[in-house]
Structure formats: structure tokens, C-alpha cells
Amino acid sequence: MTPKLLTAELILDVTEGVLRRHGPVKATVVDVARVLGVSHASLYRHFATKAALWEAVTKRWLDHMATALAVIAAEECDPEFRLRHWLAALFAAMRRKSHEDPELFATYQMLVADLGDAIIVHVDDVTAQLAQIVRTGAETGAFASVTEPTIIARAVFQATGRFHDSCYSRDWKQPDIEAQFEAVVELVVRGLRG
Fold first, then answer.
1. How far is residue 6's CA from residue 183's CA, in Å, rounded to a whole number?
2. Alpha-carbon distance 92 to 194, whole Å?
3. pLDDT (tens digit, 9 = 90+) per residue, 160-191?
4. pTM above threshold 0.90
């Protein structure tokens, strides 16, 4: 494959394929360059290091997920329903990626372990979405009044961590994981109601 124009987006597309084929540990920038039909030095014009390239692939996936969650966070509906829907969508997205795309999920797990910038930005982004839901819930009376929706949102994010933190991905295959998820969400919602 010899592209006419080497773009960051094309490099990311090819890198995803290479990561799926070889996994994040064995894949190299040279592998990506080979598929593109360019020198690996050409890739470094777009991404300074292998780690930066891997992080960009993960960031693209996280951005896609955050965009889908933002749509739910902005819905004009009951805040409790919206919160349940948002948490379920996050859990479903993480489970789907871990089960259906294990190599890219492994890349994500490596970044989480290093606490890469993409992870920090993603957590801040989704916490802001949760804060939006909490704030609306407090304003409409669906949830108890809160003075710091961001702090409450972080608490909700942490309380539900077992269902979106990649370190728990093996647990997501348990036959009763859905019931476990529903029980935790119900507890969180009851706490928000006050």
C-alpha cells in the first residue's frame, strides 16, 4: 500500500490493523510503515514516538466513546434514566472492546498503567458528563441538592469502576455480571436521591 498522501488518520487506521494482528507489545512502527509502503521515518513526522502513536490510536477510540456518551448526557429526559443509560453505555462499550477487540484493549490497558495523557483527558471528559447529569438531577429535584456536582460525579465514576476500569475486565465475563452492575447502579441512584 503506497498512499498518495500520508495523513495522521491513515496512519492511525493502519496502526489499528497492525495492533490487532501483532498486539501492542510485538507491533512496531516499522510494521506500520511496511503496510503503508513508507519509511518509518515518515511516520515520525506525524507521531514522535511509538508510544505517541499507540496513545493516538487509543485516544481516537476513547474520543469516539466519549462522543457517544455525551449524546446520552445531553438527552432531554429524566436524569435518573439518563444516568442509568449513560452508565450502561459505558459498561457496554468497555465490555465490547475487551471481548471483541482484545489487542486494542490491551493497548488501552498499557496506557492506563502508564496513566497517559489520553486517559487523564478521557476521565476528565466523562466525569464532566456525569456532573452535567448530576447537576440536572439536582436542579429538577430528581436527585438531592448538591453544591459540588463534579465531586459527586467523580464519586459515581469511582463507585462504578468495577464496570469500566480495565483492571476488572476479567470479571466482565462472569455470568451474573449484569445483575451485579444493576445492583451497584441501583445503590448509586438511591444515594443520589438522598
1. 49
2. 27
3. 999 999 889 999 999 999 999 999 999 999 99
4. no
